[in-house]
From TrEMBL:
Organism: Pygocentrus nattereri
Gene: KCTD13
Family of this protein: Belongs to the BACURD family.
UniProt-listed GO biological process terms: brain development; central nervous system projection neuron axonogenesis; negative regulation of Rho protein signal transduction; neural precursor cell proliferation; positive regulation of apoptotic process; proteasome-mediated ubiquitin-dependent protein catabolic process; protein homooligomerization; protein ubiquitination
Span of domain BTB: 43-143
Name of the molecule in the record: BTB domain-containing protein
Annotated region described as Disordered, given as residue ranges: 1-37, 289-309
PANTHER family: BTB/POZ DOMAIN-CONTAINING ADAPTER FOR CUL3-MEDIATED RHOA DEGRADATION PROTEIN FAMILY MEMBER (PTHR11145), BTB_POZ DOMAIN-CONTAINING ADAPTER FOR CUL3-MEDIATED RHOA DEGRADATION PROTEIN 1 (PTHR11145:SF26)
Molecular functions per Gene Ontology: ubiquitin-protein transferase activity
Gene Ontology CC terms, in alphabetical order: Cul3-RING ubiquitin ligase complex
Low complexity composition-biased segments: 1-14
């Protein structure tokens, strides 16, 4: 007995058919077929969304007037593969969120703006008005929250710093803050003054956000130094540190010349929107560059980004003289 007979299957050999002189093409059934009658007669639906498989009900898909409902009631033609899966040519990454919105009427949205915009695109494709409004209102709320935020670039190399300053159309304020670059101990109030400089930098960044580019450098040689740039070159510098001699040792002193820093920040606003082009702006700036009494000493040189014969105002904190506690008649030691 043959294997076919033992299994109960009847196998018949097809009789040979002579070829027709003009054969008519017979209908071929591929792995997918399009159905226009919809899925109204079904209770459950198998969805293949870009390779992501989902199993749900017609009732869930029909909760809102959307593309999926029209596929169920026959208004939109659907494509079903050989295994009965309804094929949707969309990315299936956010389709679970679409399904959960249809099930529950609400859904938590992604945190990142890019993913939220992707969900909005999917909602627009499936014509889910409720999810569309949910995405748009969330985008608006997040934009209101982040409006006015101040982004402070962090310098990673000297080349990056030079490129950033030379290409920026706005004035630039840089705070170089490197507390670890110190081989001496600090004076008693230096830590507080260092924190005050950092706090002032944050306040100025918020106050002049959009008008001045504030950048921070934690890799430089200076412990605390402010630099002010306009038209791609350095205009002024305020160094807040000095070395003083205490009893039998050197110490690093950090000052907080708040008035001078604020003055220099206001001075570089003349370079906003290219208003300082020509010598008129520079002359106006130099005419008002009188050092505040008791703050420090000012000196000039020709350095700075962009070179040229224009000088850079370098303001240093006042040089201090500290007496040691040795007996009378011994020499007083001065700062370097």
């Amino acid at each position: 007995m043959s294997a076919e007979a033992s299994s109960g299957r009847v196998v018949s050999e097809p009789s040979p058919v002579p070829p027709s002189p003009n054969p008519s093409p017979s209908p071929s059934h591929g792995p997918e077929q399009k159905i226009g009658g919809g899925l109204a007669g079904s209770k459950y639906v198998k969805l293949n969304v870009g390779g992501s498989l989902h199993y749900t009900t017609v009732q869930t898909l029909s909760k809102e007037d959307n593309l999926l409902r029209s596929m169920c009631d026959g208004s939109t033609e659907v494509t079903i593969d050989s295994e009965g899966w309804v094929v949707l040519d969309r990315c299936g990454r956010h389709f679970p969120l679409v399904l959960n919105f249809l099930r529950d009427g609400t859904v938590p949205l992604p945190e990142t703006q890019r993913e939220l915009e992707e969900v909005l695109n999917e909602a627009q494709y499936y014509r889910l008005q409720g999810l569309i409004q949910h995405c748009l209102s969330t985008l608006q709320k997040r934009s209101e929250v982040y409006e006015g935020g101040c982004h402070i670039p962090m310098i990673t190399s000297a080349k990056e710093e030079q490129r950033m300053i030379s290409t920026c159309r706005k004035p630039v304020v840089k705070l170089q803050n490197n507390r670890g670059n110190n081989k001496y101990s600090y004076t008693s109030n230096s830590d507080d003054n260092l924190l005050k400089n950092i706090e002032l930098f944050d306040k100025l960044g918020l106050r002049f956000n959009g008008r001045v580019l504030f950048i921070k450098d934690v890799l430089g040689d200076e412990i605390c130094c402010w630099s002010f740039y306009g038209d791609g070159r350095k205009i002024a510098e305020v160094c807040c540190t000095s070395i003083v001699y205490a009893t039998e040792k050197k110490q690093t002193k950090v000052e907080f010349p708040e008035a001078r820093i604020f003055e220099e920040t206001l001075n570089i606003l003349i370079y906003e929107n290219g208003r300082s082009s020509g010598h008129g702006g520079m002359a106006l700036l130099e005419s008002g560059s009188v050092s505040s009494p008791g703050v420090g000493q000012s000196e000039e040189d020709g350095g700075g980004v962009g070179g040229g014969d224009r000088r850079v105002r370098r303001i240093h904190v006042r040089r201090h003289i500290m007496h040691d506690e040795r007996g009378h008649g011994q020499q007083t030691v001065y700062k370097d």
